[in-house]
Amino acid sequence: MREALCQLLxxxxxxxxxxxxxxxxxxxxxxxxxxxIYTAVAGRPFEYQPGSERSPYLRTQRIALFVDGLGNxxxxxxxxxxxLRVWDKSAExxxxxxxxxxxxxxxxxxxxQQLVALQTTSPSLDAKRWVLARIRWRSQTENAFHIGxxxxxxxxxxxxxxxxxxxxxxxxxxxxxxxxxxxxxDALDPWETLIVPVQDEPFPKQWxxxxxxxxxxxxxxxxxxxxxxxxxxxxxxx
Length: 238
Fold this sequence. Notes:
The protein has helices at about 1-10, 35-40, 55-60, 80; strands at about 25-30, 85-90, 95-100, 115-120, 130-140, 145-150, 155-165, 175-180, 190-195, 205-210, 215-225, 230-235. It is mainly beta.
């Protein structure tokens, strides 16, 4: 059921040429890359723990920023050329558009199932808040690029450090940025889930979390989604 839903969401919508809401062409900012997303959501760069190396995945990852409010807009006159626009939206996500005449992105810039963070000027969202989401689909028409974004469902997100628990007698593994997603306790879905960078198989079952000088050991219960550069799973404390 979950796989079928993901396959359906990965396809661009058909037969829909009208926007759902008037004035939906509001500007939107979209960023990708674990370090960039963490910096935007946390408001500070990821700090690697003393004695720990940078995660091997993050060492080789290409980091891209798109109008992220972190200094890649050279001047105000260039802002319109960097912003994407919200063409369509719902409670689950957004369809973003950028005209080819001003596009700084290409068909290969964004990858389906890639982790991103989105910020819009919608009154329903805090203007300073970034929303964690993933790319569901992308397409190109004669005039523009279209990107489908689906948000992760959560009431609160906590940026922290995470790493797989090392076997006894071995050196600790590197810390990586991660996001703890919290739902209200009466939600039908798991009320605590974690998003971490993609991992090699076999996927680690035990993890160590670090936040504000406190550590927590957890056990993976279910992998909810494996994306291009992330894994999202439910867990319980050890």
